[in-house]
Amino acid sequence: MKNLYHQDIFDFKIPVNSYWEETTKENFDLDKLKKDITSEVTIIGGGYTGLLCAINLIENYNLDVVLLEAGKIGWGASSRNGGFCSFPPIKTSFKNLQKIYGKEETKKFFKNSVEGSNFTRDIISDYNIDCDVTGESNFIVAHHPNKFKQIRDQAKIYNNEFDIETKIYSKEEFNKIGHEGTEQFGALSYKPGFAINPLKFVNGIAKYALSKKLKIYEHTLVNKIDKDNSNYILRTNEGSVKTKKVVIATNGFYQEGLVPQLNSRILPVISNIIVTRKLTKSEIDLHNFKTYSPITNTRNLLYYYRKLPDNRILFGTRGDFIGSDQSNLHRSKKMEIFLKNIFPGWLNISIDYNWRGLIAMSQKLTPSIGKIENEEIYYGFGYHGVGVSSAPWTGKQLSKLVFSSNSKDLNVSKIYKGLPKKFIFPRLRIFYFRLAVLFYNIKDRLRI
Prior knowledge:
Layout: H1 19-23, E1 36-44, H2 48-61, E2 65-68, H3 77-80, E3 84-85, H4 94-101, H5 103-126, E4 138-141, H6 148-162, E5 166-169, H7 171-177, E6 187-190, E7 194-195, H8 198-211, E8 215-217, E9 224-228, E10 231-235, E11 240-248, E12 267-276, H9 281-285, E13 295-297, E14 304-307, E15 313-318, H10 325-342, E16 351-361, E17 368-371, E18 377-381, H11 387-404, H12 429-445
Parallel strand pairs: 1-2, 1-11, 2-8, 4-13, 11-18
Antiparallel strand pairs: 3-7, 4-6, 5-6, 9-10, 10-11, 12-15, 12-16, 13-14, 14-15, 17-18
């Protein structure tokens, strides 16, 4: 993907300068791969997907597993996201899913999405991870009066079609339990849902994985995969791994060219986040911001935000198109304006942190889980910005597939199964995305 964005966003040597990094002082300081080794399964990517796949392969199937991470553990989206445990992991409507896959598969997909959210909660409990869990549901806020009907209809569908617990709040009701602001005209809540510190979460998973004797190598970028009869040779600058099976768990940070069958199928999209300084109680009260639950709004180019445990406000939205450190800073200034337009009482509140990462989108507009045909190479990606609930669950499902080498044994909705189509003229992916953003900007301005 280095040809799509500036090299600044691929600097594996240092972690992104985020609020999470500043407040989470865990450092595993694991070895870099500097020799030639062997394993039964090798996983590329040390985030939620890769770690959970590895843990389940060890615990459930007693396999010899090696995990390679180009940066430090969780260097990618697993340590950079907003910490929203929400669902579903899609960028399309349930009606489109029904049209393509049918009603039953769509129901199963939403059932799997709920399972993913619950699985994340179970991991936190089972692995005894202290990751600052807050909130008991997810909120979707109508950002304009004509969007209230949309969320009311969504609540009915979630409840009637998918048996998801929902509740509708009028503007006045949400003013009392959520927040006030210029873009708050009622809200929908749905469960399960909560928020976390994502870096503490991935570190907790890694600590558990290490206790299970998973061999993890940090700062180990795989440059090439060669085939040697029934084995694969994963080559890095200073060592290699000879392995029978390979799992690609890099999501938006997939390095184009590594696996030809995966090339041109992922659209990495930058998402940016800013975090304010700590707000006083009187400042919080200016907008009656009571809830700690994660919030998204109904914009086509959505805003997502939440109150952190130390009374900072985290605010995120679509990022820039370049990926340089300078473009990140420029985007953060625009986002500060967006935030203060919604919450004008905070006009003089300063921003302490800004950072960005890559989410993985595809033409399926849903996650993909599967095996490369005629190869022992497996993949899980395409969470569309909803990885906290879907990536760990995907890792567990991948472990079943890796063990059996047969997708028929994977009992998930077929919406997840298989690769998305390749992008036509893949070098123009960012141009396609620019056009889509322009289109959605127009829709947002017209309140459509």
